[in-house]
Amino acid sequence: MIMKAKISVNRSFVIGEADKNIFGGFVEHLGRCVYNGLYEPDHPEADQDGFRKDVIELVRELDMPVTRYPGGNFVSGYDWKDGIGPRENRPVRADFTWKAVEPNTVGLDEFIRWCRKIDSDILYAVNISTNTPKAAGELVEYANIPGGTYWSELRKKNGSAEPHNIRLWCLGNEVDGDWQVGHMTAGEYGRIAHETAKIMKLADDSIKLCACGSSVFSLSTFGSWDIEVMRHLFFDVEYLSIHMYFSNREQDLPKFLAVPEQVDQRISAAVAACDAVAAEKKSTRKIMIALDEWNIWYRGKISCAPEDIWQHGKAQNEEIYDMSDVLVAGGALLSMLDHADRLKIACLAQTVNVISPIMTIPGGGCWKQTIFYPFRETSRYGRGTVLRSVIDSPTYRMEGFCTGNINYLRSTVVWRQEENELTVFAINRADEIMEFTACMEKFECREVVAAEEIYHESMNAVNSPENEAVHPEDIPANRFSLSGDTLTAELKPLSWNMFRIRVK
User: Fold this and answer.
1) What's the pTM value of the predicted model, to 2 decimals?
2) Could you tell me the sign of the dihedral formed by the alpha carbons of 374, 377, 381, 384, in that order?
3) Which of 221, 351, 204, 311 is nearest to 273 (CA)?
4) Which CATH number does the domain housing residue 434 bear?
5) Which pLDDT band, with edges at 50, 70 and 90, does 401 fall under?
């Protein structure tokens, strides 16, 4: 018997508008992300600024409207002033976090140029752990004040006549974790972050700030950290930042495929903490959520090889993704869409080489990992009004972080009004064929303009420079039909699927 599952949506019932910034990226000065990644001045594809044009082309294909920078754990020991001015005068520093050398060849001004090449804004993380509020204020002055002050005039002298106009800023990174240089308690962080936010907004009151939320579920401070921090910063910030990394170390595929439900719970927990503080303060103000680090990460070697310590541009945290990761990353993106009312920023960590959808060969080519494709397709066709869905699906039982019954079907529908299209995303998490039905009430559906699937018979299938084994393919017309407001399709086992439907 074929498994049957259904999603129902109605034009009148919406979650919210999907913010373009949930399709963001992340560049940290770590491993081969910057050096021997996006920046390789001796490469045949390097442009006049030293950035690889082939990498730029692939990042543009992902269409990442915002990029978090320069870390990550790196930022907690970083002084932004080391990365400006004539390169020959910039200091070479030890990066104690990753046991590497930071030559400061790429700094803020260079990275701004790279972001303009890929049409991305910056979400800039300031060092709140080992630097001062004054340094953060001076950074905003350098980046955003048009001129007439010491730091803004220095920016002009350094070649940027116009302000960088960075609108989004993070107040530190994972400060709740004892692995972080400059780790603090929630009270310590709340106090220093409040003073940092104050001076930054005095420099430019149009900027928006992200506070550090709980970074890891396993920490004893999880949840309570968010509430205490928000009590300090509720009126200072616009976002609470959370991080999530997923793994399949136990080699338990059904548990791994339930990651999207973990994302649901994690976002809901952050929202609950923010709203609890809003109630305490008798305020209707809503703090939004920024999932500004997320990805699958469990295979990549965290530390450098012993011979590569205290160097730069060496391989570190390089994960090779397989077909199972397509289902998990694709499902996580659907979870983000399903929280479009409160999740407004999300950054895939990272963009190049380091736990990344794009890999490069020094001096050679670059290639797309398996997770490149669900991200690209969701980024392209998942922007619009996310509809509130009701799913009727067989389930399996899961214990742990997301205890409960897990639907074999994960599905989300987005109404792209300007294009007169509905995008129906559907992931079959069962190892058998699924008869999938999507009922779209109060829409006059015309035709299916595109139907794609990502499928491979092996969950271990990976891409490489020589062989792109996992990629989207058209679903044959004999496997789907549209009748009135109802789409019916046959979904392959353990597959990612997308249907674009033209409506009147």
Assistant:
1) 0.96
2) positive
3) 221
4) 2.60.40.1180
5) low
3-state SS, residue 410 = strand
Q: What pLDDT is attached to residue 121? A: 98
Residue 475 belongs to domain spanning: 3-11+386-503
Are 354 and 492 in the same domain?
Answer: no
The two beta strands, 358-360 and 366-368, are antiparallel
Q: Is the pLDDT score of 404 beyond 80? A: yes
Give the CA angle between residues 158, 72, 123 to the nearest 5°: 55
Q: Are residues 369 and 393 in the same domain?
A: no
Taking residue 478's Cβ as centre, other Cβ atoms within 10 Å add up to 7
User: Catalytic residues, which ones?
Assistant: 174, 293
What average pLDDT does range 247-266 have in this prediction?
Answer: 94
Q: How many independent structural domains does the chain possess?
A: 2
Of the chain, the percentage scoring pLDDT greater than 90 comes to 92
Show which of 357, 381, 405 is a domain's final residue: 381
Q: Is the peptide bond before 265 cis (omega within 30 degrees of 0)?
A: no
Q: Which residues contact 178 (CB under 8 A, 6 or more apart)?
A: none
